[in-house]
Amino acid sequence: MKNPKAIAMLVVSVVIGLGATVLAAGWLAQQGAMASNKVVVAALDVELGSRLNPQFLKTVDWPSGSIPAGAIHDPLTLQDRVVKTNVLRGEPILESKLAPLGSKGGLSAVITEGKRAMTVRVNDVIGVAGFALPGNHVDIVVSTHLDGGGQGDKQISKIVLENILVLAVAQEANRDETKPKVVNAVTLEVTPEQAEKLDLARSVGTLSLVLRNQVDKIGVDTLGIMKRQLLAGDTVVVEPAKTAEPAKPAVKKVAAKRPQQPGALAQTETRVCVEVIKGHTKNVECF
């Protein structure tokens, strides 16, 4: 005959175990909800200049201790906002990646405040064989003729702009491309002063792009190179200006004759004379 007391203890143990499991699961769920927040991320890859809409966005749970600065929690606040950089799928949408409110999208939305976009014509050589892609930085070299001031024109090549951002090549502004593209136009981001220099440079000579390392921000002040220096292997040397030295008194020797005495032969004697210059007057003193 079974022991009723043992069966009752077993039933009580099972009930207590189930209750503890339910309480632990509820506690863990509550702690997980408290340790995470909803963050808006990209539901698919978004190109720079694109206007956001609900199909581009989704919300995910993000650990509260590692939420990036500028993260967005409500997708409704992103309606019609424009991204100024490429955003990959699953990447959080940050305020720093968005153009100012009211931007209409397109290339103008990604131009840095205070700067301008200017397009120059290039070919496969000027455009660094198509390796000058959006997001890269280049230097601008102009080859022209320098006015020689009556001595004829002198051909010179000179770097006129440095560390200029390439915004787009032809009509492409995607910065994720790594394959070179040979195009006939490149759009650059410049300040108003740089735009003036670039416009003048392309009107007086031939432009060339020089591709820079993406992390190299150091500027170099060059003097340019002329044709005669290129062929002779010379470099530009600036000589210091010479200062005028004070005039020294001129010393010269002259032969002075003594007056002839009666009955004596004329004799000559060599004397030393010094020409002394004082202001605008000259005096000769002999010794």
Can you walk through the features of this model?
With 287 residues, the protein is of the alpha+beta class. It folds into 4 domains: 1-34; 39-108, Alpha-Beta Complex (Type Iii Antifreeze Protein Isoform Hplc 12), CATH 3.90.1210; 114-232, no CATH class; 251-286, no CATH class. 17% of the residues lie in helices and 29% in strands. The protein is built from 3 helices and 11 strands; from the N terminus they run αββββββαββαβββ. It has helices at 4-34, 192-204, 227-232; strands spanning 36-42, 57-63, 116-121, 137-146, 154-169, 185-190, 206-211, 225-226, 251-257, 268-278, 281-286. The strands form 3 sheets. Strands 3, 4, 5, 6, 7 and 8 form a 6-stranded antiparallel β-sheet that branches. It has a 3-stranded antiparallel β-sheet with strand order 9-10-11, with no helix packed on it. A two-stranded antiparallel sheet has the order 1-2. It is elongated, with a radius of gyration of 43 Å. The relative contact order is 0.10. Residues 237-241 and 263-268 have low confidence and may be disordered.
Features:
287 residues, alpha+beta, elongated
Element layout with pairings:
Elements: H1 4-34, E1 36-42, E2 57-63, E3 116-121, E4 137-146, E5 154-169, E6 185-190, H2 192-204, E7 206-211, E8 225-226, H3 227-232, E9 251-257, E10 268-278, E11 281-286
Antiparallel strand pairs: 1-2, 3-6, 4-5, 4-7, 5-6, 5-8, 9-10, 10-11
Rg result: 43 Å
User: What's the story with the biggest beta sheet?
Assistant: 6 strands, antiparallel
So what's the overall shape?
A: elongated
- The beta-strand count equals 11
* Proportion of residues in β-strands: 25-35%
Taking the alpha carbons of the first and last residues, their distance comes to 160 Å
Q: Name the average pLDDT.
A: 79
Give the proportion of residues in helices.
10-25%
Number of separate structural domains: 4
Q: What's the SSE pattern?
A: HEEEEEEHEEHEEE
Q: Which segments are poorly predicted (pLDDT under 50) over 5 or more consecutive residues?
A: 237-241, 263-268
Number of helices: 3
> Based on helices, strands and strand pairing, what is the structural class?
alpha+beta
